[in-house]
Design goal:
This protein is of the alpha/beta class. Helices cover 28% and strands 19% of the residues. The protein is globular and about 60 Å long. 53% of the residues are buried.
Length: 352
C-alpha cells in the first residue's frame, strides 16, 4: 500500500517503468458501499487519486452481459449477450470492441467461466486466459497478467477477479461479514497489479460488473434475481484524474467504459435502464415466466423509477419523466436462450 501511494505521489515527475498501459480492472459482484478504505483499501487509494463516478449503473446483474457492455459500449439488448454464457447467450458479431479500436496488443485474464471465452468475450485478444469451468483465485489472473505485459510496448490488459461472488468463503459469522472479507481478498489480490500499472502510466478504469443483494431484499445474496439499486448501482472510477475532477456526479453506465478507456469524459445520461438477470418470484413477487425471460426492466432518472415486470406490468416510484417510460418500453423481450450449461450454472451458484 505504501509503495502504491509513493508511486501515485511521484508519477508526474519520474520516468515511467515502461511504455504506458491501458487497463480495465473488473471486480465481480462488488457493491458500491464496499468501495471504501475499510473494504478495499488498495482500490480506494487509487480512486482517491483518480476520478470517481458516483452515479454509475450496470445494465444487468449478470457477469457475461455486463462485461460485454464494458467491452463494446452497447447495451445487452443491442450486443446480444442478454444473460450469462452458461444460459446460452453470446455476443453478436458487430462493431470493434474497445481493445480492437485502441489498436494495441491485448491480453485478458479472467477468474470465472462467465467472464470467459464462451459467449464471445475473447474476440480480438492476443492472449485470453481463464478457467475452463467454475472459478479460480484472482491472484492467479493477476500473476498471469503481470507475466504477459510487454515490457517494450504499450498494451491493453483486462483483469477480472471473482472473489466477492457467492457462495462466500470469507471469514465471518454472517454472510454480510463473509462477503466483506471476500471483497478485501479481491482488493489484496489486485494490489501488485495496481502498483505495476501505476508505475507504467497510461489509463486505468476500475469497475464492478454488478453489485449484490445482502439485506435489502427477502431473497438475499443473489444479484442475478434482483433489479435492486444494490445490484445495479456500481463502483466506477478512472486513473489518472479526468478533467482535474476527483468526483463526477453525472449519471453514467458501464456502456461508458470504452469512452473512459480512451481518456474521454462521457456525456451525462438523463435516463439509465437496467434489468434483473432472472425471474424468481421469491425475489420479484409475481414475475413470470421464471428464468431469464421474466426479468424486470427498470428505468431511472433524477426524479423517479419505472419498473416493467412480466406477469405484473408496469409500476412507478417518484415522478419519472415520460422519457423513462419510453426507454423502458423500448427494451425488447429476452429471446429464448440456446442450450443451457446447467452443470456450470449450478457450480457457480446460479441454480439450486
Amino acid at each position: 500500500m505504501l509503495l502504491l501511494l509513493a508511486m501515485l505521489a511521484c508519477t508526474g515527475g519520474s520516468a515511467p517503468a515502461g511504455p504506458p498501459v491501458v487497463a480495465l480492472v473488473t471486480v465481480d459482484t462488488w457493491r458500491l458501499d464496499h468501495l471504501s478504505a475499510a473494504h478495499s483499501p488498495h482500490l480506494w487509494a487509487l480512486a482517491e487519486q483518480g476520478t470517481r463516478f458516483t452515479d454509475a449503473w450496470s445494465p444487468v446483474g449478470l457477469t457475461t452481459a455486463a462485461h460485454a457492455t464494458m467491452l463494446t459500449g452497447a447495451q445487452p439488448w443491442e450486443h446480444g449477450a442478454r444473460a450469462n454464457n452458461h444460459h446460452g447467450y453470446a455476443l453478436i458479431d458487430g462493431p470493434p470492441r474497445i481493445h480492437e479500436r485502441l489498436g494495441l496488443r491485448a491480453g485478458a485474464f479472467v477468474s470465472a467461466f462467465p467472464a470467459g471465452p464462451e459467449g464471445g468475450l475473447d474476440r480480438g485478444f492476443e492472449r485470453f486466459s481463464g478457467p475452463e469451468s467454475g472459478e479460480r483465485p484472482g491472484a492467479v489472473a493477476v500473476a498471469e497478467a503481470l507475466a504477459w505485459l510487454p515490457a517494450d510496448a504499450s498494451a491493453f490488459v483486462w483483469v477480472h477477479v471473482y472473489e466477492p461472488h457467492g457462495p462466500y468463503e470469507g471469514v465471518g459469522a454472517t454472510d454480510v461479514a463473509r462477503y466483506g472479507e471476500e471483497v478485501r481478498r479481491a482488493d489484496a489480490a489486485l494490489a501488485p497489479l495496481l502498483d505495476a500499472l501505476v508505475a507504467r502510466g497510461g489509463r486505468i478504469v476500475v469497475a464492478a460488473d454488478h453489485g449484490e443483494v445482502l439485506t435489502e431484499e427477502g431473497c438475499g445474496y443473489q444479484h442475478a434475481r434482483s433489479s435492486h439499486e444494490a445490484v445495479l448501482h456500481v463502483p466506477l472510477f478512472t486513473w489518472p484524474r479526468l478533467d482535474g475532477q476527483a468526483v463526477i456526479d453525472d449519471r453514467v453506465t458501464l456502456a461508458d467504459v470504452p469512452t473512459l478507456l480512451e481518456g474521454r469524459r462521457p456525456a451525462a445520461r438523463p435516463v439509465v435502464v437496467g434489468e434483473s438477470g432472472e425471474c424468481d418470484p421469491g425475489c420479484a413477487p409475481g414475475c413470470a415466466p421464471s428464468g431469464v425471460q421474466g426479468r424486470d426492466t427498470v428505468g431511472r432518472d433524477g426524479a423517479g423509477l419505472v419498473r416493467r415486470r412480466p406477469g405484473v406490468g408496469r409500476t412507478e416510484e417518484g415522478h419519472p419523466s415520460e422519457a423513462v417510460r419510453a426507454a423502458v418500453d423500448a427494451v425488447p423481450p429476452v429471446p429464448l436462450p440456446g442450450a443451457t450449461n446447467t452443470a456450470e450454472a449450478k457450480a457457480l451458484g446460479y441454480l439450486e
